[in-house]
Amino acid sequence: xxxxxxxxxxxxxxxxxxxxxxxxxxxxxxxxxxxxxxxxxxxxxxxxxxxxxxxxxxxxxxxxxxxxxxxxxxxxxxxxxxxxxxxxxxxxxxxxxxxxxxxxxxxxxxxxxxxxxxxxxxxxxxxxxxxxxxxxxxxxxxxxxxxxxxxxxxxxxxxxxxxxxxxxxxxxxxxxxxxxxxxxxxxxxxxxxxxxxxxxxxxxxxxxxxxxxxxxxxxxxxxxxxxxxxxxxxxxxxxxxxxxxxxxxxxxxxxxxxxxxxxxxxxxxxxxxxxxxxxxxxxxxxxxxxxxxxxxxxxxxxxxxxxxxxxxxxxxxxx
Length: 319
Fold this sequence. Notes:
With 319 residues, this protein is α/β, with parallel strands linked by helices. The protein has a domain at 2-177 and 209-236 and 293-302: Rossmann fold, CATH 3.40.50.720. It has helices at residues 12-22, 72-75, 91-108, 134-139, 142-153, 183-186, 188-192, 195-198, 212-224, 241-252, 264-273, 280-287, 311-318; strands at residues 2-7, 35-41, 58-62, 80-83, 116-120, 164-169, 171-173, 201-202, 206-207, 209-211, 230-234, 239-240, 260-261, 296-297. The model has no long low-confidence stretch (mean pLDDT 96).
């Protein structure tokens, strides 16, 4: 049985990954779980999963990334790491968690024992060719700039490049009574209240999305079949914003009689009227509205079933 160490399990994505890995069976002894899961958690009450019903042994490791050195002896017993923890909001905390103590976490692993590190970043750091986007490191939020710094400093880890797999999720959906809702999922119903207006507007923009359950399925596959190092953006095939609105309207049986183009200049004026000051990063995102990556992976690319491949499948789950 392999020992896996998980961070960030109290978040939306972390819940799905923890649950999926706990269900994995040992290929040589199918009656046994494949992993012993060690879960770093600051507040166990934030875990909504019924851990006692999951088939794998799960050990809660009380603490946080700021004090990760306290668990140095345990970390040297790990065969793999899935690092999903991140911080935002507080600039000093974001840099400490997303850079300083992430590097420390990697350094505390035993390179002779640990065969794989899976590290979650964000697709906002990359251009369409999956190259680091310089403006993200210069003008992004503290979260984005700290993640960009970590992207550049990965090579300080002995696991880079051959055993460090970096994953870049796109727009992440997820949530249920046993899983926290992602930020975008939590705001979905609020956005749909404006659908009667939005359906008559046309905006030149495009994006990918993916559900946390589908990300967890891919993580389970890569843990069982380590691909080595690399960089992979996670997302279903790209979707234009207009196509997205059309699919939502089709699902809700709302007709679109006409569509008017929404000039980006109007959005700037609207921000000015409401006293919203657009940052350099905001301006960049307004000018570059096609958040599309080549390639972007979904479970289908790995020959796996995809639970949420379409907008309709999301709406069916959350409306």
